[in-house]
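Researcher: Next sequence.
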Amino acid sequence: MSSSIVIIGNPVSRQASPEKFRAVTSFFEGKGHSTELLITRKRGDAEEFARQAAARHPDMLISAGGDGTINEVVNGLAGSGVPLAIIPLGTTNVLAREIFPHRTFSEVLEVIAGGRPRNVSLGRIEHRSGERQESRLFCLMAGIGFDGQAVRDVNLRLKGYTGPGAYVLSGLKTLARYAPPEIVLRVDGQEISGYAAIIGNISRYGGDFRVTPDARIDDPQLYACVFRGKRRLDLLRYVLMLPFGRHIKAPDVTYVRAKEIVVRGSAPMQIDGDYLGSSPAVITVSPDPLRLIY
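Model: Next structure:
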């Protein structure tokens, strides 16, 4: 039976092209589905397109872009019950690495066509933005401190040319000059002081680094990895440990499961690879699951 599919495409995603968008629409139309392709022009479009599309109750919505595009779409779909599928066309495609490991573009299309919606968990972060309180959902992670600063300072033009290299360069620059403020996290009632933290909803971070290795998107809980060292050498040591998963065993790293995390102190924050603002903040598991096809 024919179904309606809305596709939200981000043309500035690193791997996006008009040819790929046409391939997506042709693939699903070839299977008897009706499709509508919406192309974003500016930040915020994907969220608004998703919100408008959800009001029409399509059978599926597809986010064709990177992790930032997915984040916008998820925030637009929140609470609608409309199933979401993703086609990874971004820089690092962390969510795709988690749910579609080692899949090609064509294989992802086939998985979506034959897949079924599964309930997955999302994180929610609440913080003050100017004079108003803001609440955002995230699929992957929230980063506070060093991580948030590095994401904030990424050169977007360089990102378009070098992809992940832009994040590496920004991280090195941040490492060279960053003087981290102390933050205090109350994790389910337990207070932990530190200078950087990653709150994971999935295991992967920045590609295939497993900063929160026990986190799973289909498990409604978060994992907090708090780095308590302040010196630049401490930050460098953490970075060198990450590829091998040794960071969670370091004596100055706290790694805990969490349902609610209250962050005190002022530090830059990012969610799903995009800069969000500054703490304080409250991070929880969203009560509304997302229906994700994979």
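Model: The longest strand covers residues 123-129. The radius of gyration is 19 Å.
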